[in-house]
Amino acid sequence: MSIILPEEYAAVGLIAIALAMDCFAVSVCKGMAVKKDRAKTAFLMSFLFGTFQAAMSLIGWAAGTSLLDAISVYDHWIAFGLLAAVGGKMVHESLGKKEIDECRIPSLRELLVLSVATSIDALAVGLSFAFLRMSILSAAAIIGIASFILSLAGFYAGKHAGKRFGGYAEALGGVILVCIGLKILLEHAGLI
Fold it and tell me: How does pLDDT run across 132-161, given as a tens digit for each residue?
C-alpha cells in the first residue's frame, strides 16, 4: 500500500469535499426540520455520515485492489469513468431540484438509511483509489472527517439558508469530481 504524496492531499481533500456534498444537502434539509435536541441530532447524523463515507471508500478500495492486476492497463479510464459518472449524477440530480424536500425529525433507522444512501458514491471513489494505488487509510480518514464537518455545518446552516443553497452544493461537488477525473486522465496521457 503506497502512501499519499503531499501533492495528492489537495486532490483527496477536494474529492472528500465533493463526496460530502450529498451529506451537506441532506443535513441542510434535516437542520430545517429539527427543533428539539438539535445538538444531539446534528452530532449523531454527522458522525454516521462521516463513518459510512469512510467505510464505503474502504470497501470500494478493497474490491478494486482484488481486481487491480486484471485491469491495470485501463485503470485510469476506469477511475475517470467512475468519478465522471458520480459527478455527473450529482450535477444532474441537483438540476432537477427546485427546493429541498420537506423534512421531519429523523429516526435512527432513517439516519442509517441516509448514511448508506449518501455514501454509495464513496464506494466508487474508493474503487478508483485502488486503481490509482493510493493509500486508502489516509484517504478514508480525510473523506470521513470532511463528511462529518460538512454535515455538521449543513445541519446548522439549514436553519438559515437551506432552501436557497442546498442544490447548488451538490452540483458543485459533482463538478469537482468530474474535474478530478479529467485531471487523472490527462495526467496519464502526459498532457499535464
Answer: 777 789 899 999 999 999 999 999 888 776
pTM over 0.85? The answer is no
Residue 26 contacts by C-beta under 8 Å, 6 or more apart in sequence?
49, 114, 118, 151, 154
Give the number of domains in the chain: 1
| Helix runs in the chain, H state only | 6-33, 38-71, 75-95, 108-131, 136-188
Provide the 8-state DSSP code for 34: -
Asked if the structure places residue 2 within a domain, the reply is: no
Residue 1 lies in a domain: no
Q: Which three cell numbers stand for residue 124?
A: 466508487
Residue 35 forms part of a structural domain: yes
Q: Among positive and negative, which fits the CA dihedral 43, 54, 1, 188?
A: negative
**pLDDT tens track for 57-84:** 999 999 888 876 676 677 678 777 877 8
Residue 177 lies in a domain: yes
